[in-house]
From TrEMBL, chain A:
Residues of the Histidine kinase domain: 667-877
GO molecular function: ATP binding; phosphorelay sensor kinase activity
Subcellular location: Membrane
Protein name: histidine kinase
Organism encoding this protein: Croceibacterium xixiisoli
Membrane-spanning ranges: 396-418, 425-453
Reactions performed catalytically: ATP + protein L-histidine = ADP + protein N-phospho-L-histidine
SUPFAM superfamilies in alphabetical order: Adenine nucleotide alpha hydrolases-like, ATPase domain of HSP90 chaperone/DNA topoisomerase II/histidine kinase, GAF domain-like, Homodimeric domain of signal transducing histidine kinase
Membrane topology: Multi-pass membrane protein
UniProt keyword annotation of Ribonucleoprotein present: no
Keywords: ATP-binding, Kinase, Membrane, Nucleotide-binding, Phosphoprotein, Transferase, Transmembrane, Transmembrane helix, Two-component regulatory system
GO CC terms in record: cytoplasm; plasma membrane
Highest taxon listed in the record's lineage: Bacteria
From TrEMBL, chain B:
Species in which this protein is naturally found: Croceibacterium xixiisoli
Lineage per the UniProt record: Bacteria, Pseudomonadati, Pseudomonadota, Alphaproteobacteria, Sphingomonadales
CDD domains linked: trans_reg_C
UniProt domain OmpR/PhoB-type: residue ranges: 129-228
Modified positions (4-aspartylphosphate) in chain numbering: 55
Domain Response regulatory: 6-119
SMART domains: REC, Trans_reg_C
Name by which UniProt lists this protein: Response regulator
InterPro entries, sorted: CheY-like_superfamily (IPR011006), OmpR/PhoB-type_DNA-bd (IPR001867), Sig_transdc_resp-reg_receiver (IPR001789), WalR-like (IPR039420), WH-like_DNA-bd_sf (IPR036388)
Keyword Phosphoprotein applies: yes
Any Pfam family: Response_reg
Length: 888, 233
């Protein structure tokens, strides 16, 4: 064998590449200018640092300095220049790249059309060729260039691009969305950082409107979601994108503090499952709910926890009243189904109010409202809502008295010109001012003080608190009434302002949190950041535990915490396993000083967070729970994404290793078989010229070696787990025919008896693996059967299976060893004839048979004595009779 | 001695080339050799061979890539001779335009038989034969009749379709895909079981021993060939 002509590592890698196509990764952006090229170059640089052979096929830097700087590190394949109608057009040099054979090539602008006369009219066709050659490709594309989205994009942007890429190209690609918020993009555009060809400027200015960019961005995210695997898809559907794109339906459950709120939540979950929709449990945070007592709060928290546990999103909507809150929320998320409870008792205390469902339906939209009867609202009946009965500062009463005194003073001064009733009107002033500024108590205080002063100083008989004229009673009642009503209204307004403020704060907190945790680079840093942020927002001690083989493992804590006691660990474990809060203030393991919440992503607990206070009090208030939940959801999502990325990297490495292994096997097979081919060929050649029985020996030994190599390679494939099944319907007659043909030498001297009815069903197997099974069984029979005896191949139907057997006449299998005969390197001895074999053959039969879902059996038989090896095909491996019409 | 045909051997192993050369010369073929893809393309132009025996594991280029190039340049019969035995590789080689595929280590006699078949097919390529004889079966492609012995065999249209497709290139392996698209052009899901059952039905009608088919022969995982097919007329 000529060693000089066999190229090594390179050839191996080339073969490795041929084993599979190259992989395509596409950087998808919503619009020009989001930074796809930059992202591609930096990813490429990372791959290069990791040792990959990366070259730049073509990159459009559009003169941007940062981008230019990034290309500098890469090897660049010079472009090919083409003269066309007097112009010089440059295109990617395919031949140079193919000759250079890099591991990864960066090709910008997948949708580009090549200059006339190029190898392919479109650049994506070039990319396909590169992939087919086993070269990985990174490329970039904007969403409007994807064929199936072209119309949609044109419909709202009024800009139609002509260069499109078929969707199938993206189907097998890994897609990374390069995403920046529309405002930032517009800013970049203004700063001239976005490249736009001169002639398209006007059209593109319209294109870059904020609404267009938002819509494009959503399209890009959706398209990316389509491409990722089902796990990620589920993920995105559950968390990342709101709106009803997943199935068109979105279920919202209105949750209150009522005792049976969990029924509503379960109903919502069932409906969402049935509709394959996402769902949300909403609590409308009204001024009334601020007045909840601890029991109410706990029930509400439990209900929201349950929703979270069942996979729903939990949201708290601040609003002045329930109807307004639900109506605006359902509109905002384009909900299609709303579930709410209705109490039969609700009507008695406020008969003038229309049911909530009616009011929401009135608000319009294509929302279906489902009303479920609820049991008694609350055991104690409902409390009438009173605006905050706050005491207000002591100074308020001083100011109030002062105002009353001032009015009294001016009343006395003006008493000469005004009549009694008008003086009474003057007292409205301090009452209104006090109640609107200082609240109900101060207002009533002003009312009482005013009436006393009015009564004592103005109403006859003056100087006493007696009221002679019943008319004047009215004045006092009016003063007090005004105090009450005014304080109500102004308190309401104040509460609403406070709610709005708190919801703005919550939103800001969430956005800030997401920004903080998304900016982290590794898992440790992420965990630490989550702890720090939660601590900052809720003023609690925090700790994060991540699932590990030995139970939850403490990975981060702020302030630092070294270890937990058994009870804390038990609570953390409970929270992780049961997907429920545990520890202080929950229903479980309340002796713990810490309260643990699970962090869930796609229904799976990825970590638990522990919360505690310095003084051992309740770490989280129930009205903070929705915010905490949503923060934890975000944290879980980011954490899971990070873990998934790690996993994917591992898988990629494994794949590389598999590829190399497959390449080695293929190379070994070539290197071993080639000399054998020469030996066998020359032996046959010599037979014509020389009469020598040593030639027979030479040939049979070479054949043996060949069989051995085949088995060794097969076994290596089994062990390496690189068997890829290609199941197809196979006719047993065909399979047996091929196997008998290929073992004709090993079976020389034995007749083959066939008992295989042509009316047996086809079997579902991998033709090649099945062939190797049969060859090994026949080979085995040829070796152990007594000379001159026939080998029988028989197939029969058994209940639930089809059985194919190979029966020989010979010593059979030593009693009691039928079970182990399929083990690797077992050879049955006990015969004086030298048995040639490696002991691999039957192990391969078993491994291949099991890989295809068949069972291998070995047994002895009497009459005539010998061994019987069988392959059992279960019913699901039998092919149903095809439709007769297709056969005529 | 005049050569009955000229064969180009493309293989980087000198021993294999020598072996093939002796085998072929013994059977009165003329032989040219090439040790890599570049030399193969040169010989193709300057020696214009009738048959090319192509190894897939060449040092300078993958043999699979070479198949379409050879096809473009020459009408030579192209046999792949390779140690790689993956069936999808065989199918790929045939789809790319190879006429047949022989696995190493090969049997010299079998190789010669394949070369003969392939050459015969090449000779008859231009004028499609009107009738083919395989064993005691005669396939009349003009009158769309199949005779076993002297007896008319009744075949359904699909059965005849398969037989006719195989008879167009007697002795040559026809891939499942080729047969499926010829006979079930609208079956986009590729129900190979249709083909398997139809082959089985044909065998019942024309084979002497149905469990040992001698006319419609299976090529493992690749397709079928009509064996012993001689063009008659």
């Amino acid at each position: 064998m000529a060693d000089d002509s066999r190229p090594d590592p390179d050839a191996l890698l080339r073969i490795a590449a041929q084993e599979g196509r190259g992989r395509l990764k596409v950087f998808l952006g919503a619009a020009p200018g989001v930074g796809k090229t930059w992202e591609m170059l930096s990813d490429g640089a990372e791959r290069r640092k990791a040792g990959a052979d990366v070259v730049v096929g073509v990159v459009e830097t559009h003169g941007r300095a940062e981008t230019e700087a990034l290309t500098r590190g890469h090897e660049i394949i010079p472009r090919r220049s083409e003269a066309y109608q007097g112009r010089q057009l440059t295109e990617m040099d395919m031949d140079a790249i193919l000759a250079r054979r890099p591991g990864l090539v960066l090709v910008d602008e997948l949708a580009h059309s090549n200059a006339p006369g190029s190898r392919h009219p479109k650049r994506y066709q070039d990319v396909e060729e590169l992939l087919a050659a086993g070269i990985d490709v990174y490329s970039t594309i904007n969403i409007q260039h994807i064929e199936s989205l072209n119309d949609i994009v044109a419909s709202f942007t009024h800009v139609r691009v002509r260069e499109t890429v078929p969707d199938r190209i993206l189907e097998s690609a890994e897609i990374e969305v390069v995403d920046i918020p529309p405002d930032e993009l517009i800013e970049r555009l203004k700063q001239g950082k976005v490249y736009i060809p001169q002639e398209a400027t006007r059209a593109l200015n319209h294109f870059f409107s904020k609404s267009n960019l938002s819509a494009l961005r959503e399209l890009a995210l959706r398209r990316a979601a389509q491409a990722v695997d089902s796990q990620m898809l589920e993920h995105v559907r559950q968390h990342a994108l709101s709106g009803s794109w997943a199935s068109g339906d979105r279920v919202v459950v209105a949750v209150s503090e009522a005792p049976d709120a969990d029924r509503l939540i379960r109903a919502g979950k069932r409906m969402a499952d049935a509709l394959r929709a996402s769902w949300t449990a909403v609590h409308v945070d009204t001024p009334r709910s601020r007045a909840f007592d601890e029991d109410d709060r706990k029930r509400l928290a439990n209900a929201l926890n349950l929703a979270n546990q069942l996979g729903g999103t939990v949201v708290s909507v601040p609003a002045a009243d329930v109807v307004e809150g639900l109506a605006s929320y359902t509109r905002e998320v384009r909900a299609t189904q709303l579930i709410l409870g209705h109490s039969a008792h609700a009507a008695w205390y406020a008969p003038w109010r229309r049911p909530v469902a009616d009011q929401i339906l009135q608000a319009g939209g294509d929302l279906a409202v489902h009303v479920l009867p609820t049991k008694a609202q609350s055991t104690r009946g409902r409390r009438l809502y009173l605006p905050s009965w706050r005491a207000g500062p002591t100074s308020a009463y001083g100011w109030t008295l002062l105002m009353v005194a001032a009015v009294t003073g001016s009343g006395l001064a003006l008493f000469q010109v005004l009549d009694l009733a008008n003086v009474g009107l003057l007292y409205l002033l301090p009452v209104m001012v006090a109640s609107s500024l200082f609240g109900l108590r101060a207002g009533l205080f002003a009312g009482v003080a005013s009436s006393l002063a009015y009564n004592f100083l103005f109403l006859p008989p003056t100087g006493s608190l007696t009221i002679a004229n019943p008319e004047n009673v009215v004045s006092i009642v009016v003063l007090l009434g005004v105090a009450f009503v005014t304080s109500q209204f102004s308190a309401r307004i104040r509460d609403q302002a406070e709610l709005a403020g708190s919801s703005a704060r919550e939103n800001a907190a969430q956005a800030g949190f997401l920004r903080q945790i998304s900016a982290t680079g590794n898992e440790e840093e992420l965990l630490q950041t989550i702890c720090g942020e939660i601590r900052r927002m809720f003023a609690v001690r925090t700790a994060l535990l991540v699932a590990a083989s030995g139970g939850p493992q403490l990975r981060a804590a702020v302030p630092p915490e070294n270890r937990f006691d058994t009870i804390e660990l038990a609570a953390a474990q409970w929270a992780m396993e049961k997907n429920q809060p545990a520890g202080l203030g929950s229903d479980t393991l309340t002796a713990s000083d810490w309260l643990f919440y699970p962090l869930r992503a796609a229904g799976k607990v990825v970590a638990v967070i522990g919360l505690a206070t310095e003084d051992g009090s309740q770490p989280i208030r129930s009205d903070d729970i929705p915010l905490l939940m949503s923060l934890l959801d975000q944290a879980a999502l980011v954490l899971e994404r990070m873990q998934l990325e790690d996993e994917l990297r591992d898988i990629a490495q494994l794949k590389d290793r598999d590829r190399l292994r497959a390449a080695l096997l293929s190379s070994v097979s070539h290197d071993l078989r080639t000399p054998l081919t020469a030996i066998l060929g020359i032996t046959q050649e010599l037979r014509g010229a020389v009469q020598d029985d040593r030639l027979d020996m030479l040939e049979s030994e070479a054949q043996r070696l060949n069989r051995f190599i085949a088995n060794l390679l097969d076994m290596a494939r089994v062990e390496a787990g690189v068997i890829r099944l290609k199941l197809e319907p196979v006719d047993l007659t065909d399979a047996i025919g091929s196997a008998v043909h290929d073992t004709r030498r090993a079976l020389a001297g034995h007749d083959i008896e066939l008992d295989v009815s042509p009316s047996l069903p086809l079997v579902m197997v991998d033709a090649q693996l099945f062939h190797h099974c049969l060859i090994n069984l026949l080979d085995n029979a040829g070796r152990y059967a007594d000379p001159g005896t026939p080998v029988r191949i028989a197939a029969e139907r058994r209940p639930g299976a089809l059985c194919l057997s190979i029966l020989d006449q010979g010593p059979g299998i030593p009693a009691g060893r039928e079970g182990e005969i399929f083990e690797t390197f077992i050879r049955i001895e006990g015969s004086d004839r030298s048995k040639t074999g490696t002991g691999l053959g039957l192990a391969i039969v078993k491994a291949f048979a099991e890989a295809m879902g068949l069972t291998a059996e070995a047994a002895n038989r009497d009459e005539p004595r010998g061994a019987r090896f069988s392959l059992l095909f279960p019913d699901n491996r039998l092919v149903r009779e095809p439709d007769q019409e297709q056969l005529l | 001695m005049t050569d009955i045909a000229r064969v180009l051997i493309v293989d980087d192993e000198p021993h294999i080339r020598r072996l093939l050369r002796t085998t072929l010369e013994r059977a009165s073929y003329g032989v040219v050799e090439a040790e890599n893809a570049r030399a193969a393309m040169d010989r193709l132009t300057d020696a214009s061979p009738d048959v090319v025996l192509l190894d897939l594991g060449l040092p300078d280029r993958d043999g699979l890539e070479l198949i379409p190039l050879i096809r473009k340049q020459s009408t030579a019969t192209l046999l792949v001779v390779s140690a790689r035995e993956a069936t999808d590789l065989k199918v790929a080689a045939l789809d790319l335009g190879a006429d047949d595929y022989v696995t190493k280590p090969f049997d010299s006699e079998e190789l010669l038989a394949r070369v003969r078949t392939a050459l015969r097919h090449r000779i008859h390529q231009q004028g499609a034969q009107s009738s083919v004889v395989a064993g005691d079966v005669e396939i009349d492609l003009v009158n769309r009749r199949v005779l076993k012995g002297e007896v008319d065999v009744h075949l359904t249209p699909k059965e005849y379709g398969v037989v006719a497709e195989l008879a167009k290139f007697p002795g040559r392996v026809i891939t499942h895909q080729q047969l499926m698209s010829a006979v079930w052009p609208h079956d986009y899901e590729r129900h190979i079981e249709y083909l398997r059952v139809v082959i089985r039905n044909i065998r019942q009608k024309i084979e002497t021993d149905v469990s040992r088919p001698a006319i419609l022969v299976n090529e493992l995982g690749v397709g079928y060939r009509l064996l012993g097919g001689d063009p008659a007329g």
